[in-house]
């Protein structure tokens, strides 16, 4: 027999398990807030831009083919920027207490499609350190690329700076809390339906019909209250009878 669940039963299940759902949501939001505000370390980001153009020593007219060549070189430059040949010099100049591999993890290099502009972004716990690393990396790359590839076609467009009241890019507590709320709601609703699915206790005549596949012919009403009243009356009458007997 195919079992169907009505919308009314679904809503009844949610209403029945509402306390559990709310508890899971509150726990998820609380954990997310505590982790975001008190556990995770804020990270700041600073960025600089460099331009890959034609050689400064060549006075030649605009050539589309040369632009295309520079675009193809950008991928090579992106790798060179994050190579130990550049990062070791950056660490030495800034006297950083980290390895080239650790510094590599702080730097992100990318460029827009069909653009000769390369963005160098640095993330660090200190906004001033992030800006220094970004600017020094761009400067060192501009100097070293002349010897590495025997070209002089890199210019610094914009330097990274530290603005007052700069906000960290990570973590974002409000976003984390919103995500935790949604996940908590999903987990609570899922757990509520899961518990209802495994609950095999019989609570009504409808459960009996679903279990045995036969209609219910009759229902015996609950008469506990009436029985208690009858027992109380009987006890009262017995007490009165004893009283009369003793009096006699």
Automatic annotation (TrEMBL):
<dbReference type="InterPro" id="IPR003856">
    <property type="entry name" value="LPS_length_determ_N"/>
</dbReference>
<dbReference type="InterPro" id="IPR032807">
    <property type="entry name" value="GNVR"/>
</dbReference>
<keyword id="KW-1133">Transmembrane helix</keyword>
<comment type="similarity">
    <text>Belongs to the CpsC/CapA family.</text>
</comment>
<feature type="domain" description="Tyrosine-protein kinase G-rich">
    <location>
        <begin position="140"/>
        <end position="194"/>
    </location>
</feature>
<keyword id="KW-0812">Transmembrane</keyword>
<protein>
    <submittedName>
        <fullName>Capsular biosynthesis protein</fullName>
    </submittedName>
</protein>
<feature type="transmembrane region" description="Helical">
    <location>
        <begin position="177"/>
        <end position="198"/>
    </location>
</feature>
<keyword id="KW-0472">Membrane</keyword>
<feature type="domain" description="Polysaccharide chain length determinant N-terminal">
    <location>
        <begin position="3"/>
        <end position="94"/>
    </location>
</feature>
<feature type="transmembrane region" description="Helical">
    <location>
        <begin position="20"/>
        <end position="40"/>
    </location>
</feature>
<dbReference type="Pfam" id="PF02706">
    <property type="entry name" value="Wzz"/>
</dbReference>
<dbReference type="InterPro" id="IPR050445">
    <property type="entry name" value="Bact_polysacc_biosynth/exp"/>
</dbReference>
<dbReference type="Pfam" id="PF13807">
    <property type="entry name" value="GNVR"/>
</dbReference>
<keyword id="KW-1003">Cell membrane</keyword>
């Amino acid at each position: 027999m195919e079992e169907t669940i009505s919308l009314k039963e679904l809503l009844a299940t949610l209403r029945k398990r509402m306390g559990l759902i709310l508890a899971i949501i509150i726990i998820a939001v609380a954990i997310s807030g505590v982790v975001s505000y008190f556990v995770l370390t804020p990270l700041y980001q600073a960025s600089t831009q460099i331009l890959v153009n034609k050689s400064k020593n060549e006075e030649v007219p605009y050539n589309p083919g040369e632009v295309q060549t520079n675009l193809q070189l950008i991928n090579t430059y992106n790798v060179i920027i994050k190579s130990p040949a550049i990062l070791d010099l950056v660490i030495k100049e800034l006297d950083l207490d980290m390895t080239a591999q650790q510094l590599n993890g702080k730097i992100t290099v990318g460029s827009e499609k069909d653009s000769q502009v390369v963005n160098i972004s640095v993330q660090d716990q200190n906004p001033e350190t992030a800006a220094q690393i970004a600017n020094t990396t761009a400067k060192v790359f501009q100097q070293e690329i002349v010897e590495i590839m025997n070209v002089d076609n890199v210019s610094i467009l914009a330097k990274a700076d530290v603005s007052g009241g700069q906000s960290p890019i990570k973590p974002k507590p409000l976003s984390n809390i919103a995500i935790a709320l949604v996940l908590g709601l999903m987990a609570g609703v899922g757990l509520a339906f899961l518990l209802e699915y495994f609950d095999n206790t019989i609570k009504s005549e409808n459960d009996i019909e679903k279990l045995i596949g036969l209609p219910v012919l009759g229902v015996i009403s609950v008469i506990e209250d009436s029985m208690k009243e009858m027992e109380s009356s009987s006890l009262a009458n017995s007490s009165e009878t004893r009283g009369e007997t003793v009096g006699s």
